[in-house]
Amino acid sequence: MAPTTSTGTVHLADLQPQVTGAEMIAHLVPPPQFAEATFDTYRADPAYPSQQEAKETLLAFSGAGAPAKKGGFFSRAKKGPETKPGIYLDGGFGVGKTHLLAAIYHAMPARRKYFGSFIEYTALVGALGYKSAVEQFRGADLLCIDEFELDDPGDTMVMTRLLGELVASGTKLAATSNTPPNALGEGRFAAQDFLREIHAMSAHFQTLRIDGVDYRQRSLDGHAEVLADDAYASAIEDAAASGVASDDAFDDLIAHLARVHPSRYVRMIEGVDVVGLRDVTQLTDQSAALRFVAFVDRVYDAQVPIRATGLSLDQVFSEEMLAGGYRKKYLRATSRLIASTAA
């Protein structure tokens, strides 16, 4: 279960959150950080024209608040060029892809629309079963998929099959990429590899490349903040006095994440105002590291600050890991950890 106290300290390693299919569906909306994200609030970096170009393309894709037409919003107009039903945002971490994805969600005048991470959708298919998931989403106007994964062939094929059925029934798709760069090109998403993966859907997607630097690093020195033991204890005590603070030994939390499905990580931190991690050490197991990445993503999306002791969190992934196929994921997580400890 998630924390039930309104103030005090909890141990995330003691929590066993449960999430029903109905609850998963209800959570398919942009995370709090992007609840108000719009195209107007997206600050395109003039040094990278592809950001403004992507924004303009997505404004047209979303309809920018245009009213639905008779026969359904996604009915094809008799005149004008055909618009592809799917759009894919490709780029490095921290260039605003999720912001733009949320802006599409908010701008599109759709009757039924959903926004979630790839992990959330695959977990929902697992909870409901494939047939029931298809029925749940059939007729939806828009599906936004953040951090589309190509790591697990089984999950990828289930999702691409699902999306293929939804596109055939009139659903529009918008997604962002999250792929191992050493396998698919440093800092880039290999559009053709993705298009081949989704087979019959290949003709339905337009891929947009968004260049830039990580906006989180623009005002940070590149290191996660580390607290001394007494400063950490004081920070957790202060947070617990007015809200809920978690306090876990880093190794205990890492071990516990293996016992909780990543789709439930968001429930672990629900109601938590500060996440405390004691005695951070470098990760040596790839599976544990990837689970920690998923946990960091949920903490960052919820905009929960992190307070930590031990090794600086920007050093938690080894050089060997950073040189491997999941480099992009680890660098994104490092960026988010730096921002979360500075919050």
TrEMBL record:
Keyword Cell cycle part of the UniProt annotation: yes
A biological process from GO: cell division
Single annotated GO MF: ATP hydrolysis activity
InterPro entries: ATPase_AFG1-like, P-loop_NTPase
Pfam families: AFG1_ATPase
Keywords, sorted A to Z: ATP-binding, Cell cycle, Cell division, Nucleotide-binding
Matches recorded under Gene3D superfamilies: P-loop containing nucleotide triphosphate hydrolases
Family matches, as SUPFAM superfamilies: P-loop containing nucleoside triphosphate hydrolases (SSF52540)
CC per GO annotation: cytoplasm
Residues that span the membrane, as ranges: none
This protein's record includes keyword Cell cycle: yes
Cited PANTHER family: AFG1-LIKE ATPASE (PTHR12169:SF6), ATPASE N2B (PTHR12169)
NCBIfam families (UniProt xref): ZapE
Name assigned to this protein: Cell division protein ZapE
Protein's organism: Microbacterium limosum
Organismal lineage: Bacteria, Bacillati, Actinomycetota, Actinomycetes, Micrococcales
Gene: zapE
